Amino acid sequence: MRILFFSHYFPPEGNAPAARTYDNAVRWVRAGHAVTVVTGVPSHPAGVVFPGYRNRLRQRETVCGVEVLRVWTYLAPNKGKLRRIANYVSYMVSATCFAMWLPRPDIVVATSPQFFCGWAGVLTSRLRRVPLVLEIRDLRPASIAAVGALESRPLLRCLELLERAMYRAATIIVTVGHGYRRELLARGVPEARLHVIPNGIDRARFAPREADAELKRSLGLEGRFIVGYSGTLGMASGLDVVLRAARTLRERGRDDIAFLLVGDGAVREDLAAAARRDGLERVVFAGRQDPARMPAFLSICDVCLVHLRKLELFSTVLPSKIFEAAGMARPILLGVGGEAREIVETAGCGEFVEPENDAALVEAVLRLAADPARRRALGEAGRAYVAAHHDRDRLAAEYLDLLAGVLGVD
Fold first, then answer.
1. Rounded (10°) angle between helices 392-407 and 16-30
2. pLDDT at 351 exceeding the cut of 70
């Protein structure tokens, strides 16, 4: 098959959409298929072009056999409104235009959460007259409204109409969790067109290892019990809870416990400023890191925190960082309800804490800090669960079979 894949994000960007797209595309190429990914110049989340790249009209590269076409976009940081909308729309226009010059694909795949990336897929599939597989990783515009990033009711209504039209245009829709599937059913998407292929991990990369002692030293975290968070520090993350928990632990004299926040996003500067203002020396901000270094960062965490704000909509979210932590046999403190909680509790790989409840977070941290045997048991259970249910090789093959089924080929 010749597969054309639209993704606003792609490595060296390190967010979940980039990782999932890369992991699937590489495996599809190994299986003998031709994959072209249309993406932008790497700049997420700061809106600054990564070293070695320029924001040209278009540029090509080959990554592990995957043909990558990078198109011009209006650059914007992952915060604010108008500039981000300009970034999204410019990608849709550039990606659609330059896709017309590529060899005709057999099938188009377009992935969210960037809303207009889906529309690049819709337009291209219509113009090239090929099937469209729409991959839903986030329910936009609902999630945008939930965190207060967009308040204009007329504009939100317009986006909702575009959302429904996008769903209707897709041949099939792939979601990363059953919570999304239920929401799409409620929006009127026929059950026969919905498929769930969850996120997974490369088990060779995210595997148990000794803690990186040099990394610990470089971060000033030697001798500390480390609660680590990795990912986007955005409006949905609700990480104010970490600062409140850190204050409580300091008041209790627990300077042996530290929080490590790895990543960047819209609220990172505000969080870091608040931590400095309150003298919270045990909250360490490592900033954006090369995705290749994430296993090293996870290796030094005694517990991994996965957290989102306490909003009903986020009970549909299934964060990929759950599987990365479990793959490395790290116990999880989960501040996300819904399907994410069901998985963690079924796997027996962590503890649920009420989102944004700093008192509950403190007590859970103290319990796990005092019980290394339980941490080890949780970690081992997580590793076994991921191996059985979230192996990237198996999931990529399942996805490929689904694409072949759409085309009616073996």
1. 70
2. yes
* 14-49: burial string, b at 16+ Cβ within 10 Å, e else: bbbbbbbbbbbbbbbbeeebbbbbbbbbbbbbbbee
Residue with tokens 């996008």: 166
Q: Which residue has the tokens 């003998």?
A: 32
Phi, psi (deg, nearest 5) at residue 26: -60, -40
Q: What is the largest CA-CA distance in the chain?
A: 65
What are the pLDDT digits (tens) for 129-175? 999 999 998 776 555 655 565 666 777 778 778 888 999 999 999 99
Cα–Cα nearest to 233, from 184, 190, 285? 285
Supply the pTM of this predicted model.
Answer: 0.88
Calculate mean pLDDT across residues 331-339. 95
All structural domains of the chain, each given as residue ranges with its CATH number in brackets, are 2-200+391-407 (3.40.50.2000), 213-389 (3.40.50.2000)
pLDDT in tens, 353-400: 999 999 999 999 999 999 999 999 999 999 999 999 999 999 999 999
Residue carrying structure tokens 């010059």: 101
Residue pair 173/190 in contact (Cβ under 8 Å)? The answer is no
Cα–Cα dist 120/124, whole Å: 6
Chain centroid offset of residue 20 CA: 8
Q: Mind listing the pLDDT tens digit for each residue in 191-250?
A: 999 999 999 999 999 999 999 999 999 999 999 999 999 988 988 899 999 999 999 999
Rounded to 5°, angle at Cα 143 from 138 and 146: 160
Q: Are 5 and 37 in contact (CB under 8 A)?
A: yes
β-bridge partners, 262: 230, 287
Mapped onto helix, strand or coil, the DSSP state of residue 133 is strand
Return d(Cα 177, Cα 123) in angstroms, integer: 26
